[in-house]
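Renewal narrative, Specific Aim 1. Our central claim is that a sequence can be written position by position from structural information alone. The example that follows is taken directly from our test logs and has not been curated for this report. It begins with the structure tokens describing the chain, in the order in which they were read.
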């Protein structure tokens, strides 16, 4: 159950972003990745909004999360909570946070997939404490998956296949 993965949920909700201090080339952040690794990532960065399926966070609580990659290395993560498993009833709440993100290197997951290591930085709680989160991202065409982990300070070793993000259609398209 997703309640077991609270840290992973926090990570996933925060995940997908980190410090924006690398060089920008042609609108794409250039960090430690090789030039041939940037093609799929440039599509992600310019891809706009990614929206998850409706998934169970814990008993009686379901969510849809979206990541809006409108600016290089900056994103907005919006989480909307629902009381029903189809996420069609009136939402019980919505939270949006701004995060900074940076891609680091590629790594092989337990499933044998080549994922990107991603560092995410965000502020949480009333004190707005700055938190750094390590995440992995697996991207293929119009599908995006994040890692699942109990620790925020280590890169996950496996992907969360239960939560699938799809590229949102552009308005007017």
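The sequence written for that structure reads:
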């Amino acid at each position: 159950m997703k309640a077991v993965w609270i840290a992973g949920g926090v990570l996933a909700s925060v995940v997908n972003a980190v410090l924006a201090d690398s060089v920008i080339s042609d609108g794409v952040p250039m960090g430690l990745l090789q030039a041939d690794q940037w093609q799929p990532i440039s599509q992600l960065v310019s891809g706009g909004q990614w929206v998850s399926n409706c998934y169970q966070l814990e008993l009686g609580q379901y969510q849809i999360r979206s990541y809006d990659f409108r600016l290089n290395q900056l994103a907005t993560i919006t989480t909307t909570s629902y009381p029903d498993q189809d996420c069609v009833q009136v939402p019980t709440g919505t939270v949006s946070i701004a995060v900074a993100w940076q891609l680091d290197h590629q790594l092989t997951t337990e499933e044998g997939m080549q994922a990107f290591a991603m560092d995410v930085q965000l502020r949480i709680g009333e004190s707005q404490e700055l938190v750094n989160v390590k995440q992995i991202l697996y991207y293929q065409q119009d599908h995006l998956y994040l890692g699942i982990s109990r620790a925020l300070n280590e890169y996950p070793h496996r992907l969360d296949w239960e939560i699938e993000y799809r590229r949102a259609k552009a308005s007017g398209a």
